Automatic annotation (TrEMBL):
It comes from the Eukaryota. PANTHER family: MAJOR FACILITATOR SUPERFAMILY (MFS) PROFILE DOMAIN-CONTAINING PROTEIN (PTHR43791:SF32), PERMEASE-RELATED (PTHR43791). Keywords: Membrane, Transmembrane, Transmembrane helix, Transport. Its main location: membrane. GO terms for molecular function: transmembrane transporter activity. The keyword Cytoplasm does not apply. The lineage of its organism: Eukaryota, Fungi, Dikarya, Ascomycota, Pezizomycotina. The chain crosses the membrane at residues 104-123, 143-161, 168-190, 271-289, 296-318, 324-345, 389-412. GO terms for cellular component: membrane. SUPFAM superfamilies: MFS general substrate transporter. It is found in: Membrane. It comes from Penicillium alfredii. This is Major facilitator superfamily (MFS) profile domain-containing protein.
Length: 429
């Protein structure tokens, strides 16, 4: 009988004298050398499509306002884009207020806590050096929705007048029904927790994973990060104290103002988003392969700084295809830095409580920006939006400086030295 077979027969909690210390942490013996890759691929195939589908639904529900702005909604409702901006601000404010409470509950209410809750949930299934790519893959659903919903909206706008409904009403109706359907599917199919594959649809009669696969799933992440052995966590006020997107909204309107029809503007909006999926894939794989996140966050922001400045300086008298090209390039990297930064943040959290709250705070910060950012592109600034583009360029420059400072802080901080002393794995910067 091989050593591997002997180990497989021993209980999880049994100590083996000649086993390396890292393999007996938390009373766990690593006896699955040839099985971990297959289990990880199984998790990928089950978990990532479900989360990506949920992100798709979330973005479709939040993002269709950008499509209806190219329709006749302001005329039909006798409102201005400034009033729509206020509505967008209220949405962002509601999300900010519900981020931490819903992440503490981890049931989520409204849409507020979904992103931090989903990202925390994802982190419980994977080891640290696997998180960047998987976080990005989950966000692909959101990015794909940004692109695909624009194409769907372009088609729905052609239904204007059908059954007495304007194009924007068709967008809200059809995309709302799609969101409800995806929400139901997600609830039925998502596994309840790491290692537990008994989805609600099975009513406890079957599981995605065998008993051994479930044990490997739990044990491998605990060996990588012992804090994940805590299971259900309680978050106190002290945990909350410790961790102490307007341009995308108006992109279809900006493209329409170049001389394109509403249908073409929404279709063309999807092109840079599909390109951004490729760009983010490259950065995410590079980050996990090298074990460094900071340089790739900086690279993504550098793209933003350069392209936003070019968009701001681009002559409005240039051909519509020239202006569209600059706008498209500026949209390729707009969300990459945020997604990579979330993965970077997750790795440096020391406890599950800190990870949960920190992710909520990060998403809160993004939505707080949405509250003020909703007023950057105003009716009086159309169609060139020079003031709005100036503000976006300045904010991109400020974020580059902050990211550089954060990278240098992690590079020279005592915390890195402590981690080097405790962990033989590659340390992220």
């Amino acid at each position: 009988m091989s050593n591997r077979d002997v180990l497989a027969e021993k209980s999880v909690g049994e100590q083996i004298v000649d086993a390396p210390a890292s393999e007996t942490d938390q009373g766990i013996v690593k006896d699955w050398d040839g099985e971990e890759a297959a289990v990880r691929r199984k998790i990928d195939c089950i978990l990532l499509p479900i989360l990506a589908l949920a992100f798709f639904s979330l973005q479709m529900d939040r993002g269709n306002i950008s499509a209806v702005l190219t329709s006749t909604i302001t005329k039909d409702l006798h409102i201005t884009t400034n009033q729509i901006n206020i509505g967008t601000q209220l949405l962002s404010a509601g999300i900010v207020l519900s981020e931490i409470p819903s992440n503490i509950i981890l049931l989520g209410f409204c849409e507020g806590g979904f992103i931090p809750g989903a990202l925390y949930y994802l982190s419980t299934w994977y080891k640290k050096d696997e998180t960047s790519v998987r976080t990005s893959l989950s966000f692909y659903g959101q990015m794909f929705a940004s692109a695909t919903s624009s194409l769907i909206s372009a088609g729905l706008l052609k239904l204007a007048g059908t059954s007495g409904l304007e194009g924007w009403r068709w967008i809200f109706l059809v995309e709302g029904l799609i969101t409800l359907f995806i929400g139901t599917v997600f609830t039925l199919l998502v596994p309840p927790e790491a290692g537990d594959g008994r989805a609600l649809i099975g009513m406890g009669r079957w599981s995605y994973f065998t008993e051994r696969e479930s044990r490997i799933i739990r044990a491998r992440v605990i060996l990588d990060d012992p804090t994940k052995s805590q299971g259900h966590i309680q978050i106190s006020w002290s945990n909350i104290r410790e961790p102490s997107n307007s341009r995308a909204l108006y992109t279809p309107s900006m493209i329409k103002s170049l001389g394109f029809s509403a249908v073409h503007a929404n279709a063309l909006t999807s092109v840079p988003v599909y390109c951004s999926i490729v760009w983010l894939t490259i950065l995410s794989f590079a980050a996990d392969y090298t074990g460094h996140r900071g340089p790739f966050v900086l690279l993504a922001i550098t793209w933003n700084v350069i392209t936003y400045a070019c968009l701001r300086a681009s002559p409005y008298a240039a051909s519509k295809w020239h202006r569209y090209g600059v706008t498209a390039v500026a949209n390729v990297s707009y969300c990459s830095m945020h997604i990579l930064n979330v993965g970077w943040l997750s790795i440096y959290c020391r406890t599950p409580q800190e990870r949960s709250v920190a992710m909520a705070l990060a998403v809160m910060a993004a939505n707080r920006a949405g509250i003020s950012g909703s007023q950057i592109f105003r009716t009086s600034d159309a169609p060139k939006y020079l003031h709005g583009l100036t503000a976006v360029s300045a904010l991109a420059g400020a974020s580059w400086v902050l990211a550089l400072g954060l990278f240098l802080q992690y590079y020279i901080s005592p915390r890195k030295s402590e981690t080097l002393g405790k962990d033989t794995n590659r340390v992220d910067e």
